[in-house]
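Input sequence (131 aa), recorded before submission:
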Amino acid sequence: MSWQQYVDEHLMCEIEGNHLAAAAIIGHDGSVWAQSSSFPQFKPEEITGIMRDFDEPGTLAPTGLYLGGTKYMVIQGEPNAVIRGKKGPGGVTIKKTTMALIIGIYDEPMTPGQCNMIVERLGDYLVDQGF
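Predicted structure, token format:
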């Protein structure tokens, strides 16, 4: 399966009538493996900041998480595994795998829990596959 198929068929799938607003699989170095057409243009330093927070949990909390120039308030996560962010009625979930970041951006009516489930389920599968 291609990386684009993982985005199109797994991350952008329908769950209880809702879809993610945008999704991507990005290498730890910031290289785009695959993304939805709606995924925002991000800056390399935004990915660097996310990777730093995985290495040193809590570094993004004071300044916020930026992705595509959008600032998200960092909320609960799992050290070195998941970062979650919130902005108004939407947010972002980022799952770190061995080689990549699985990113899902959602907006209402999708719930944070639905986004977490989609992103983390694919992330866990890719970790099991060695990615």
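Checked by second reader. The longest helix spans residues 112-128.
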